[in-house]
Design a protein that fits this description.
Number of helices: 3
Number of domains: 2
Order of helices and strands: HEEEEEEEEEHEEEEEEHE
Radius of gyration: 23 Å
Strand content: 35-45%
Helix content: 10-25%
Number of strands: 16
Length: 276
């Protein structure tokens, strides 16, 4: 009985210690530029997306930042991006070399924002294989079979590399959000040959079936991007627990108060056909 009474008093005390806090939420007067862009050594039109922060209670897609002047340069060349869609800026068709610094410059509404990223080379994917995987047959785990996407590659010697994989089925991306992608540093794999490792999975029939062509892109995003990705996940998909740390702004490599990230990455591509 005494424990019950003490618990009741504790609840009352907690309820009586509440304090109203007025939080300054983002509005039109405090909008900040948000940048999301990558450049790789693959021949393509590389993309930079510009948007603006919104109010906490804004329920629509974030407004795009249109009319900006966007350039990307390395030690030898500079490319002006074209705004193909509102807030979506693309380079000409180029295949920039790895092992160089790349600088993004955005001029928007009288302000200039910059970011610099080192494009790390990436080892090629030696082999790619997709096989029917049954967790119950393999490990006795009662779960549905799926297609296991597995690869073989030589990790480059020297720490500082970090990898991200993107999977496509018949040219269509399977994952389109950060929480769905696989990414890892080379801390435990530096310089070793990585063989038969699962980097993604595909639901049978709904995401892939026999005869489909599977493409995998292996990106060497570097540890700076990896740390930023982990920071984003810690503030979003990986939070909500009782012992979480207080929310904080995610790290960025953009200057002048802009948010987001501009990265450069060596990229390797491999494809295979599902046969089982």
């Amino acid at each position: 009985m005494r424990r019950l009474i003490a618990f009741s008093f504790a609840l009352v005390a907690l309820q009586s210690c509440t304090e109203r806090i007025d939080i300054e939420l983002n509005d039109d007067n405090t909008q900040r530029l948000v940048v999301e862009g990558w450049i790789s050594d693959q021949e393509r039109r590389h993309e930079v997306e510009l948007s603006l922060t919104t109010s906490y209670f804004y329920e629509q897609e974030a407004p795009r930042a249109t009319g900006a002047v966007v350039t990307i340069s390395n030690e030898e060349e500079s490319w002006t991006l074209t705004e193909d869609e509102p807030g979506i800026y693309r380079t000409p068709l180029i295949a920039p070399p790895a092992a160089q610094w790349y600088t993004l410059e955005v001029q928007y509404q009288g302000e200039t924002y910059t970011a610099t990223s080192w494009m790390r080379p990436v080892a090629p994917i030696d082999s790619l294989y997709v096989r029917n995987f049954d967790p119950y047959e393999e490990y006795g785990i009662p779960d549905d079979p799926y297609y296991s996407v597995r690869l073989w590659t030589q990790e480059l010697a020297g720490q500082g590399d970090a990898y991200m994989w993107k999977t496509f089925v018949n040219n269509d991306p399977v994952r389109d959000t950060l929480r769905e992608l696989s990414f890892v540093t080379d801390g435990l794999y530096d310089g070793v040959y990585v063989a038969d490792i699962e980097i993604d999975y595909l639901d049978i029939e709904t995401e892939a079936q026999i005869g489909d062509t599977v493409f995998v892109e292996q990106w060497n995003i570097g540890t700076e991007a990896y740390d930023i990705f982990v920071g984003i996940m810690n503030e979003t998909a990986w939070n909500g627990g009782l012992f979480d740390s207080p929310p904080a702004n995610v790290q960025t490599n953009m200057s002048n108060g802009a948010l987001g990230y501009f990265g450069a990455a060596g990229l390797s591509v491999k494809q295979t056909i599902i046969t089982e």
